[in-house]
Specification:
18 helices, binds 6-O-phosphono-alpha-D-glucopyranose, 7-stranded antiparallel beta sheet, 9-stranded antiparallel beta sheet
Amino acid sequence: MCGIVGYTGRDQAAPILLDGLSRLEYRGYDSAGLAVRDGSAPAEVVKALGKLYHLADKTDQGRALPGTCGIGHTRWATHGDPSMVNAHPHVSGNCSGSGSGPVESDVVGVHNGIIENFTELKEKLLRHGYTFYSDTDTEVAVKLVDYYYKKYKIGPVDAITRTMVRVRGSYALALMFRDYPDEIFVARKDSPLVIGTSEGASFLASDVPAILKFTRQVYYIGNLQVGRIRPGEVLFYDLNGDEVQLPLTEITWDTAAAEKDGYEHFMLKEIHEQPRAVRDTLNSLIRDGAVDLSATGLTDDILRGIRQIDIAACGSAWHVSVAAQYVIEDLAGVPVRVELASEYRYRRIPSSPDTLVIVISQSGETADSLAALRVAKERGALTLAVVNVIGSTIAREADHTLYTLAGPEIAVATTKAYSAQLIAMDALAVRLALVRGAITEEKSGELIAALQAIPDQISRVLEEKQRLQWFSSKIANTHDIFFIGRGLDYAISLEGSLKMKEISYIHSEAYAAGELKHGTISLIEQNTLVIGVLTQSSLFEKTLSNMLECKSRGAYLMGLTTNGNFSVEDSVNFTVYVPKTDEHFIASLAIVPLQLLGYYTSVNRGLDVDKPRNLAKSVTVE
Ligand code: G6P
């Protein structure tokens, strides 16, 4: 993970770098650091532990660090604990304990990614007289560049490409060389990196929002490419050191979407943006009353030829996949296999051109999901990316791309991106079902009408938020929560449980309700909270029985069901209703109270809702 930024131009770099890092903090917040240079003077490094405001305070909001060229980093620790000495930037020479101060080194750099063979490279460098002050793989990478730079007396670009040939793993690297004032050199493999230019200035960042305030003209540097960044001018090279031309892309969306807009937290704002995110995504996929996938390039012929669908994803996107599995199989009759991307990539699942492998990812950069996509392509499958971030690596590498239109999501715990993914997968299921003759035109029309009603229905669920706020205050000191459900209700439970645990730090598990009796029920004690999701007619009674089995062993029960469908009030302690819709699409409504429950529980426990400990939003490491 980690976020990197860079600036070279006429203005003071440090405030610009801090501004950029503030928009990348979702990528990590264990420590942060800047290296800024003033003309040909050596770079000055400042680091601070913890969230970015410590670094901003330490540098007087950047004013205490003069210079017009610099790089910055916000860290999510991988190699080496979150300490001052392990914080970036790293230098090619020696470094004092705090790592801050003027840099008497030839190379200084920041890195996002993981250098997998760093131990072997470190040994090589030790043999050549280098010493190491940190536990990081980044220090090794910076020193390896320095080694080639000096050994062969070659320029920065060639020193970097030689390093890239030796290094295994992933990286977005930004480096400054003492001999090249006002220039930043970057290299990329499998970690996101975007370069922006404007009149007299250039920028780099792990993600577009970090530079959008300053420019809309960006280059997406390719894998295994190097960039030479000067004020207002950028040159790109391939691994041979030959110059390559990259297209300049204009970003058309706005930064306003990345502001809090009066809400206390980004998560609450994003929960409330769900009707809009779902409506926009749906509108982009529906034309004249029918699902239209032409923007993705998936023709009806292609859809008709599919024999098997595999879906690979991580985290909440995997939960969307589990839900989509039920919907696609039930509506379209196509077999669906759902895999965690981190598992899929190492399995030998046979694929052929009639297998559609779908990779779902908000960021479009998750390392395991990207690897799953590449493995699927190697095996000859047809690939579809369902991605939120436009221009991201997964979106660019897939054969077909379906963009969800949730807009930038800042809170680490996903809400609106999850909902946009769900609705996109539902729309895909309806089209698949229609073109394969599993449903009639009339049924397709009914299903689409149901999908189109969902944004307003989500708004109605949001109107009930006070009840969830009240209930969360009752459960704020609970130690364990079990979410249970069957079928689609199990998929909803998985996401509800994740929302709860990731931001409230309350231990929580989701179980397929029928599995409880095979072990988990022994964990039920007096007042253990069991949340049952009961939206599926054919499974309602069975899940309710499982809940009552828990109640008879002391559990405190919450039931989540649909309005007027089922009566659970007599059986459970607290009931939450959501409006009725076609049962295939209920996850879009049932998830909202569970998001609110996680949110308010975190608030009640006084936690940092938007930046939960140990997590990051974009996971670009394995
Ligand atoms: C992280 C985020 C989750 C997200 C998962 C997959 O763990 O905190 O919210 O679901 O990564 O991310 P992606 O960007 O691939 O959807």
